[in-house]
Amino acid sequence: xxxxxxxxxxxxxxxxxxxxxxxxxxxxxxxxxxxxxxxxxxxxxxxxxxxxxxxxxxxxxxxxxxxxxxxxxxxxxxxxxxxxxxxxxxxxxxxxxxxxxxxxxxxxxxxxxxxxxxxxxxxxxxxxxxxxxxxxxxxxxxxxxxxxxxxxxxxxxxxxxxxxxxxxxxxxxxxxxxxxxxxxxxxxxxxxxxxxxxxxxxxxxxxxxxxxxxxxxxxxxxxxxxxxxxxxxxxxxxxxxxxxxxxxxxxxxxxxxxxxxxxxxxxxxxxxxxxxxxxxxxxxxxxxxxxxxxxxxxxxxxxxxxxxxxx
Length: 311
Known about the structure:
Protein name: Glycerol-3-phosphate dehydrogenase
Radius of gyration: 19 Å
Number of strands: 10
Number of helices: 14
Shape: globular
Family: Belongs to the NAD-dependent glycerol-3-phosphate dehydrogenase family.
Order of helices and strands: EHEHHEEHEEEHEHEHEHHHHHHH
Distance between the termini: 47 Å
Structural class: alpha/beta
EC number: 1.1.1.94
Largest sheet: 8 strands, mixed
Domain Glycerol-3-phosphate dehydrogenase NAD-dependent N-terminal: 8-159
């Protein structure tokens, strides 16, 4: 296998920047593409991304650019954009002359909207390039500063997945490998929906018992959906599945949990939902997932209850 020598990250948010930090600690450098000029200037001149990571000092090997063309020559492109931007970025990447050997690491969680499909389906329709999913139960800031973290590399191409896992593994980063791209994608979608439900339960005055119950029901619904789509039930124990579900649902600082809490306090107002100032991927995910699985006749009380509130 060709040695992968340089990594570019598309997405200058908290997770994209954190992944750039992870890569830079291994390879010495990483390039971040973002159209936000202020972020590019701050990264290049002050080694910070204060909009998303406060005063966290970034490795000096991280640089940033506002030109998507600059990523075209890189061996690996990490996609770490909001789910709503995924399809747009894919179309833009098709226009810049990427090599068919460029490897994609997909760090975005969610679904395509037009048509409604998993990211893996979209990637295989648009590119012949190898790709893997990179996911796990991680807060971006902890990854950025080098705290212990775990990720799962998921791909149909196991030699590629193992190669990337071996490259990134360290005492501070535990990396697992899986072939089950279905279950990992479903988990990444469902966990944000369950986090909204967690915030709602908190606002209703429920305690830790209810949250533990909710996590178990969320895992059950991941299993139900995954099975219907051909996923492997053994994958439920992966850090990217149960770990990510637990972390997101138990975090009071999670955007989705916070939204759920405030959504209940505002009586599930559609006006509140429409004007919420922060991107809440669980809300859009609930709508999309509800439509996506509508033909499977699945019993999904937790995710369906959130979908009914946001539709």
